[in-house]
Write a structure and sequence with these properties.
The protein is α/β, with parallel strands linked by helices and 375 residues long. 37% of the residues lie in helices and 19% in strands. The chain has two domains: 2-142 and 308-374, 3-Layer(aba) Sandwich (D-Maltodextrin-Binding Protein, domain 2), CATH 3.40.190; 150-307, 3-Layer(aba) Sandwich (D-Maltodextrin-Binding Protein, domain 2). The longest helix has 17 residues, at 2-18.
Length: 375
């Protein structure tokens, strides 16, 4: 029944993504929602208007990549936002750009009002959607490979390219690391064999916190679908990490046998994978000290169902931020920015190529899938 439920949920989400009212991108299911669902009627609504003079706008990104990489990649966004918001009559003195120490930290900041605008995965948004409101969903270039057959992702000949059509979803991949046991798992999958639960349970896993779509929820759903309802919580050897940078470091050091990450993760760490540990790549990622290609050393052993794209969410705690006029201005500002060459370069740090307007009900499926995973 659990397998059937997760399949039905994934199907529902895909249908919602392909046919929906203009302006709203459906987001996948993912991570933590509260136990009681908030309905449209009792959900807090934005004020009509607020102050047009804001001393500081606090925006925060989740640490899906190293904090230094995100801060470097988003340099210049502050000035672009100030200029774009001024066109709508909002005078912003300063834009602070920070990176949360975890996905939940950014959600908690939005809930408290110490963060005004946050870039959240769908799962993290579902967890905090009673305290934050989604205003935009990202679109991105699809990958050259979208197969559910893990062996087709492995080896230099199968290195994924970010040259597919615009899509509103991505996948999470389950990777075997170059540890001795990781190589055993990869060899079996590359030979076309399916891994058993016992083999997976023997491995040392590294995952992200439960609010991560690609780092926890969808890998859990993959296990449920393929191993009779088993979950990450049923695995014997699991460690929880705060970000993907740490996951790739753990993989490179052979400290774990399996990591989970979004499907283009190897693209993002390809350069740093083979750099000496005392060097950095052009995005400031520290070298990981490997001697062979990431495409041959980090092998895919599982492919999840589609995950709908990241959100831009806004705090409900500050009426000068959470009001209809400012939300409309911010939506327009970010859409205009990402449609510029400078903006595309900035948001490429998250592989975002566009933004479309979104509403909270787009994430009803995300909350439903999370509930299925948690039960």
């Amino acid at each position: 029944m659990k397998k059937l439920l997760t399949v039905l949920l994934a199907s529902m989400l895909l249908v919602g993504c392909t046919n929906k009212p203009s302006g709203a991108e459906t987001q996948p299911a993912t991570d933590g929602s509260s136990e009681t669902q908030t309905t449209v009627s009792d959900r807090k609504q934005p004020e009509k208007t607020g102050s047009h003079d804001l001393d500081t706008l606090e925006i925060q990104f989740v640490p899906s990549k190293d904090a230094d990489v995100i801060i470097t990649g988003t340099a210049g966004l502050d000035k672009l936002l100030i200029d774009e918001l001024a066109k709508s009559g909002f005078n912003v003195g300063k834009v602070n750009i920070t990176v949360g120490t975890s996905y939940d930290t950014t959600g908690e900041g939005l809930a408290a009002g110490s963060v005004h605008v946050g870039w959240l995965p769908g799962g993290t948004y579902a967890l905090f959607s009673n305290e934050a409101d989604v205003i935009l969903t990202a679109t991105r270039n699809g990958l050259s490979n979208d197969s559910e057959d893990p062996k087709t992702w492995n080896g230099d000949a199968n290195a994924t390219q970010k040259n597919g059509p615009q899509v509103s979803y991505y996948r999470s991949l389950i990777y075997a690391t170059p540890s001795a046991y990781g190589k055993e798992l990869a060899a079996k999958v590359n030979a076309g064999e399916k891994l058993t639960w016992e083999e997976l349970n023997k491995a040392n896993w590294a995952v992200l916190k439960t609010s991560s779509s690609a780092g926890y929820i969808y890998p859990t759903m993959w296990l449920m679908d393929n191993y009779e309802g088993k979950k990450i919580t049923d695995l014997a050897n699991v460690i929880t990490l705060d970000g993907y940078g740490t996951a790739f470091s753990q993989a490179a050091s052979e400290s774990v046998d399996i990591i989970v990450c979004y499907a283009d993760g190897r693209n993002d760490y390809e350069a740093s994978w083979m750099l000496p540990v005392d060097q950095q790549d052009e995005t400031k990622k520290a070298g990981l000290g490997r001697s062979e290609s990431i495409w041959t050393e980090l092998n895919v052993i599982g492919v999840t169902a589609p995950i709908y794209n990241d959100t831009v969410a806004i705090t409900m705690a500050d009426p000068n931020i959470y009001n209809e006029e400012f939300i409309a201005a911010l939506q327009t500002a970010l859409i205009n920015i990402i449609n510029s060459e400078e903006g595309k370069a900035i948001f490429s740090v998250y592989s975002h190529n566009g933004y479309s307007k979104a509403v909270d009900s787009d994430y009803d499926g995300a909350r439903a899938a999370l509930k299925a995973v948690q039960e």
